[in-house]
Amino acid sequence: MFADDPQVHYSPGTSSPEVSKRTYHIVLVADFGSDRMDALTPVDKERLPEALAAAQPSLALAVPDPCGDGDEWEFRLTFDSLRSFEPAGVLKQIPQAGWRLGVREKLLARRAGELAPEQLERVVEEAAQADASLHWLPAALRANQTSAPGTPQPSGGSILDQIDEPPATDSVASEVERLAADAGDASKRISAGEADRLKAALARIDRELGAVCEAVLKSDSFRGVERAWRGLRFLVDRIDFREGVRLWALHAPRDAALDRLVERVINPAFDGEIPTPGMILLDYPFANTPADIQLLDQITQQAASLPVPA
């Protein structure tokens, strides 16, 4: 009874007929953070980076000031690759964090003896003027500029000061100082006290950067957009597109998911404008609540009206 079925018909001595594979369409609906994807967007391994770069999802966020001044840091994040969701990509887009990253780099250079104190002072003053939340930094490092490195500090009467700073007439100390100056720039060497101040400033900057980064990465809006794109990446990595599978992405905020699905998928498929999808995935958090159950029920009723995939 299967004689007319080209998928099972076979005659001895002849090759099996070529059977065309039917295209299987999958639609992923999620909050991708970009209205540029409010229509069905084809995605595969090659198109995913292009889709993310073209969508340019963005978020407006406000996080508590890690300095404890009572204000909030307000900024907008834009994502053009999956790397931009990582901590380094996030911090680069926050103005206050950007100033801290720049100052941190200079502090490390000063600690390594690669930067003169005057150069560090200029960087710190510029950062403090541009970002009021760095008002504490110049005072924390100002002691570095009271005298040039290597110059004896005024004694406070402690005998340890006299031990640490030998008399200038000491020929051995003078010779050592001369040789050190000849070997490199003496102005870039740091004392133990300056090293401690640099360490303390670096520790505070790292704490503030960590607090801001944690606040962003744990915010619901950030996690929602990141989850959508990483979920899309998960599907792309696990779908064998050679088997006739096509994946489509559709942006819709959770409260607009039903209307967007009906407008972009259900009605066009019912009217024959697009192929009927074999699977519709919703990447939203759902709970066992009356509102969520009602939403899922409405979506399933709409999906049930779709014609059978051709």
Brief synopsis:
The chain has 310 residues and is α/β, with parallel strands linked by helices. Helices cover 46% and strands 12% of the residues. Helix 3 packs antiparallel against helix 4 (117-130) and helix 10 (257-270) packs parallel to helix 11.
List key phrases describing it:
single chain; 310 residues; alpha/beta; 4-stranded mixed beta sheet; two-stranded antiparallel sheet; 11 helices; elongated; disordered N terminus
What does this 3D model show about the protein?
The structure is a single chain. By secondary structure, the protein is α/β, with parallel strands linked by helices. Among the domains are: 24-44 and 241-305, no CATH class; 56-143 and 190-219, no CATH class. It is 46% helix and 12% strand. The protein contains 11 helices and 6 strands. It has helices spanning 47-55, 87-91, 95-111, 117-130, 136-141, 159-164, 171-183, 192-217, 220-238, 257-270, 290-304, and strands at 24-30, 41-43, 58-64, 72-78, 245-251, 279-283. The strands form 2 sheets. The protein has a 4-stranded mixed β-sheet. Strand 3 (58-64) and strand 4 (72-78) form a beta hairpin. Helix 3 (95-111) packs antiparallel against helix 4, helix 3 runs antiparallel to helix 8 (192-217) and helix 10 packs parallel to helix 11 (290-304). Mean pLDDT is 83; it is low at 1-10 and 144-166.
